[in-house]
Write a structure and sequence with these properties.
The chain has about 180 residues and is α+β, with helices and mostly antiparallel strands. The protein is about 30% helix and about 25% strand. It contains 6 helices and 7 strands, in the order βαααββαβαβαββ. It has a 7-stranded mixed sheet with strand order 1-2-3-4-5-7-6. The longest helix is centred in the N-terminal third of the chain and has 15 residues.
Length: about 180
């Protein structure tokens, strides 16, 4: 485990995140190359083909953690889900209509949260999560987590998330993920 030293966490909008895309990509590639994700270079490339589209959303927000020397150590990003979101359609079992109703303000979709290996277990993920959600309007947060990622699942539960179902977020060939919801109010 690396010494944490001083880790700064910066909140940013879409244009700043685009400027820092290399940092986001480095963190993502390193964190998700590990089991249970085992993502390849092609998977990383696919994720970062979506990134510019996501950052153009007016409500996109991100948080980036760096060491004193500027080395990126963690990131998180997402945006409120619009009425046309397909997120709820990916669940293996339907949820009640009043739960799945979206209007662009009700639910913040946490797309990614990752911390590079040497900086895990030092509270960086919690700080990223708190910075990302500080002052947002949505009443709840929705995310998918691989059930094989025991540490991530445990962290989300300790932060108040509850499992509401399971989904295959990238189609039938994808691993089953837990869908978790955090009520903010």
């Amino acid at each position: 485990m690396a010494q944490q030293g001083i880790i700064s966490v910066e909140r940013m909008g879409g244009s700043a995140a685009v400027q820092a895309v290399d940092a986001f990509k480095l963190i993502y590639a390193e964190a998700f190359a590990e089991p249970p994700y085992d993502e390849t270079e092609d998977d990383v490339a696919a994720a970062f083909r979506r990134f510019p589209v996501q950052t153009r959303k007016r409500t996109f927000r991100a948080a980036l953690a760096r060491c004193e020397d500027g080395e990126p150590v963690g990131m998180a990003y997402g945006f409120p889900l619009g009425p046309d979101t397909g997120w709820w359609d990916e669940l293996t079992e339907p949820v009640p209509e009043d739960m799945r109703r979206e209007d662009g303000h009700r639910t913040f979709g946490l797309m990614e949260l990752a911390v590079r290996g040497p900086w895990r277990g030092q509270g960086v993920a919690r700080r990223l999560h708190e910075m990302l959600l500080d002052g947002i309007g949505p009443k709840r947060v929705l995310l998918n987590v691989h059930p094989g990622s025991k540490a991530a699942s445990a962290a989300y539960r300790s932060w108040g998330y509850r499992k509401i179902g399971e989904a295959r977020p990238w189609g039938e060939s994808a691993d089953l993920h837990d869908v978790m919801l955090l009520d903010l109010r």
